[in-house]
Amino acid sequence: MIDVTKRFVTAAALALAALGAHAQEAPDALVKNVSTEVIALIKSDPLLQRGDSKRITEVVETKVLPHFNFTRMTQLAVGPNWRKATPEQQNQLTEQFRTLLVRTYSVGLSSYRDETIEFEPLRASSDSDVVVKSRVKRPGAQPVTIDYSMEKSANGWKVYDVSIGGVSLVTTYRDTFRDEVRQSGIDGLIKSLSDKNRQLAAAAPAKK
Amino acid sequence: MSLRRTLAVAALALVASGCASTGNPRDPLEGYNRAMFTFNERVDDYALKPAARAYRFVVPQTVRNGVTNFFANFEDIWIGANNFMQGKVTAGLGDWARFVINSTLGIAGLYDTASDAGLPKNNEDFGQTLGWWGVPSGPYLVLPIFGSSTMRDAPAFAVDIAGYGGPRRYAVRKFAPSAETQITNTMWGLNVVSVRSNLLDASNLLEQAALDRYSFVRDAYLQRRRNLVYDGKPPKLKDDDDDARAPDARSLTTLAANRELALGSAWPPDVSREPPPTVNAVGAITPREDAP
Fold first, then answer.
1. pLDDT tens for residues B68-91?
2. A174 touches chain B (CB under 8 A)
3. Residue B216: its chain A contacts at CB < 8 A?
């Protein structure tokens, strides 16, 4: 019994240490490690290669999501209207936007082929806000740049925007969100997001 | 579907839509644009996408890469010319060296040997050259079949067709003069299918991600073009008045300022000497200050 307790305590200490190490990790190292880990998983897991949506979501939820700050992402995408939303509305917006982004990310992941990813060394960084730059090489085309905007939080660096080829995810949603709020208010935007998510959830099994 | 028919539909859409617009300053033609966008999606659903899917299903990846590389190789000549027109001599020479290397060592362009050797492909076209020269992008414009463009990029695109296609036609005339028309047409069709098949994943993603596909495509296109004109280092956009007034500690202005810090002196080029160039309401970009 003592043995079991001891082992449990050791494991807990190790886990905490690992968590601590993760929190200390530099932003560029963090993005690189997570990307490498996810790519290794895709290469070794036939379920992921076949585009099994349940397995992909599982990987995204456990490996990728902990490093994103969705509240901040939603706040930036909603723009000035964010302040007009009640805390309850803000929660709902974040939740729905998060669901949409996770689904999108999962689709992106399942279309991964044998592209190679290179990371640029982090230059002239500020203490609390940096952009980690990477490039994905494809045949017959200019490499695509993927930039992660990250900020430091109490529990490590968190991504709050992703730009692909100079197209920022947050900025691209901003106009749509603004129009939606202008036409039908914050609740209208929440409704459009949840309708979209429901529609995607319904279509998902058919698309495998 | 003939070009004339397409144009007729476009004209009708324009008339029918009138001046309908949600008031986006970069998109005064929104009514017409949306109609054309819908039309293009229809064409894509019934013709382009099925052809691209079939192509991807039948032709193995290695061969498809070869086809992509083959067409991309001819484009490097025009890409290089655009780099020269923008005064970027090193990049232009790089593009032309790519063409020489890939046409020989890369077996008529089937392999992108130059990229492997450390000469990466550039992305240039005449619209970007005009942008570099300081021509504003003007309002967003959806072209029949070809899709997203702007008042600046649309006429430039006509120049690009000649610039990209010219070297290809020249090669056909030189190596197979007897079957010139057939080969040119076949190549054109193959290129369209090949390009569309490379975009299948992106369009699947789009269907998932967008609340409103039209505005999502538009906003992504305008950002992408701006980024390309400035070769990946666009100057900061002037924030909306709304955003600047936001008392929120984490306002967009703070965000932009932080970004600037994060990227250091390389971007924007000479922010310390004078305010960075801005983009006005219709997306007009003031010429870059460090343009050679």
1. 999 999 999 999 999 999 999 999
2. yes
3. 172-173, 176
Counting residues of chain B whose pLDDT is more than 70, the rounded percentage is: 73
pLDDT of residue A191: 94
Per-residue model confidence as pLDDT tens digits over A57-79: 888 888 888 899 999 999 999 99
Distance CA(A146)–CA(A132), nearest Å, equals 8
A83 in contact with chain B, both atoms CB, cutoff 8 A: yes
Asked whether the beta carbons of residue A76 and residue B212 sit closer than 8 angstroms, the reply is: no
Q: What is the pLDDT of residue B280?
A: 42
Q: Which ipTM score applies to this complex?
A: 0.76
Q: What is the largest CA-CA distance in chain A?
A: 65
